[in-house]
Amino acid sequence: MKIDSSLSAVVTGGASGLGLATVRALREAGVKVAIFDINEENGQKIADEIGALFCKVDIMSEESALAGFEKARAANGQERALIHCAVVSKGGKTVSKDKETGGFKRLSTEDYAISAQGVLVASYRMASIAALGMAGLEPLEDGERGTIVLTSSAAAQDGQVGQVAYGSLKAGVNGLVLPMARDLMDLGIRVNSIMPGIFATPPMLRFKDVNPAMWEGLNKSVPFPKRLGKPEEFASLALELVRNTYMNAQTIRVDGAIRMPPR
């Protein structure tokens, strides 16, 4: 797919981290971008700064998602690319010591269900809404109408202690890719996912000043290069998955060869 000013894209979680890096990369390539994010203040500021459109969207809400797509399409036209980076998840071990009672407690079914909504259901929600819109577009070269890039995680394969919800549900995101790509193949819509390792996004950067030893340890844990990933490196891969029409039904790690230990 040609990446230029004729292309319209939606990036969820586009106000920070991996999503923001992807928004910037798309805008630098001339693409019309709609930022979907719950952080209205930051999202609008970024949109004004780089010439994008901000849509306040809660990925946990069908109504909010549909309204966001409607606003984006009214301004930029039907998107041909969706890069879904936003996530909502709760951590916790399946069963762990309860410091208050001295006994044991479990990650509640309710907390797991919230993570399921914020990781797996939201991925399906955003992808299926985008695909429905793409289906009515005029086909491009090879009959392509659009492309969807989901964000999974290295935790989908190397889930650590406390990541029972996140790891299993990110594995579910990878599980969406092949059947969804097959569902959409006759419509010319591709589906792929990216599994980032440890990236230097705001949640990780806090360790740099607060706990320098931990920060150094995280960097050293990566086989090569011995550093956390740069958000721009995620964005580069996302753009390649948009432009390379032969990339379909792939789940790709970008992680400096790290394999996460139990802890």
Oligomer: single chain
Structural class: alpha/beta
Strand content: 15-25%
Number of domains: 1
Number of distinct helices: 9
How confident is the prediction overall: mean pLDDT? 96
Write the CATH homologous superfamily: NAD(P)-binding Rossmann-like Domain
CATH C-level: Alpha Beta
Unreliable spans: none
Would you kindly provide a brief summary of this structure?
Helices cover about 45% and strands about 15% of the residues. With about 260 residues, the protein is an alpha/beta fold.
Structure description:
The chain is of the alpha/beta class. It has a single domain, classed as Rossmann fold (3-Layer(aba) Sandwich), CATH 3.40.50.720. It contains 9 helices and 9 strands. A 7-stranded parallel sheet has the order 3-2-1-4-7-8-9, sandwiched between helices. The protein has a two-stranded antiparallel sheet with strand order 5-6.
Q: Which helices and strands occur, and which strands form pairs?
A:
Blueprint: E1 8-12, H1 17-28, E2 32-37, H2 40-50, E3 53-56, H3 62-76, E4 81-84, E5 95-97, E6 104-106, H4 109-134, E7 146-151, H5 155-158, H6 164-184, E8 189-196, H7 202-210, H8 212-220, H9 231-243, E9 251-254
Parallel strand pairs: 1-2, 1-4, 2-3, 4-7, 7-8, 8-9
Antiparallel strand pairs: 5-6
Q: Top keywords for this entry?
A:
263 residues; Rossmann fold; two-stranded antiparallel sheet; 9 helices; 9 strands; 16% strand; globular; NAD(P)-bd_dom_sf
